[in-house]
Amino acid sequence: MKFLLKLLISAIAVFVAAYILPGVSVDSYTTALIVAVVLGAMNVFIRPILVLLTLPITVVTLGLFYLVINAGLVWAADSLVAGFSVSPLWMTLVFGIVVSLINSFLSSLTD
């Protein structure tokens, strides 16, 4: 049950971020749900590998390279999910930050 709640919160965060940010479009709430599932799966399976491989540059940049990894995952989700697009490449960075902030806020409301 908790997993479904987190998934719905992530989908809402994706939908709200797409509404707020110019250049980001989500066709429907179903598409936002699919984007949330894809981003969640990539965060579980791909992100740890990327973090491990880029550990030296992450240490040198004092952790700011995590933002680049997050933007890369959003860009990959853009490529994988039809109906979801982020037009300027730098907007993937902003989208990742906004989704994280909205997700944190909504999760704190449900706890």
What does this structure look like?
This protein is mainly alpha-helical and 111 residues long. It has one domain. Helix content is 77%, strand content 5%. It has a two-stranded antiparallel sheet. The longest helix has 20 residues, at 91-110. The two termini are 14 Å apart.
Q: Could you outline the blueprint of secondary structure elements for this entry?
A:
Layout: H1 2-20, E1 24-26, H2 29-45, H3 47-53, H4 55-60, H5 65-80, E2 84-86, H6 91-110
Antiparallel strand pairs: 1-2
Helix pairs in contact: 1-2, 1-6, 2-5, 5-6
Mean pLDDT: 94
Radius of gyration: 14 Å
Order of helices and strands: HEHHHHEH
Q: List the domain count as a whole number.
A: 1
* Structural class label: mainly alpha
Q: Distance between the terminal alpha carbons, to the nearest Å?
A: 14 Å
Query: What does the main sheet amount to?
Result: 2 strands, antiparallel
Give start-end ranges of low-pLDDT stretches: none
Q: What is the molecular shape?
A: globular
Helix fraction bin: over 70%
Give me the side-by-side strand order of the main sheet.
1-2
Proportion of residues in β-strands:
5-15%
Count of individual helical segments:
6
Number of strands: 2
Features of this protein?
111 residues, two-stranded antiparallel sheet, 2 strands, globular
Concise synopsis of the structure shown:
The protein is mainly α and 111 residues long. It has helices at residues 2-20, 29-45, 47-53, 55-60, 65-80, 91-110, and strands spanning 24-26, 84-86. The protein has one domain (2-106).
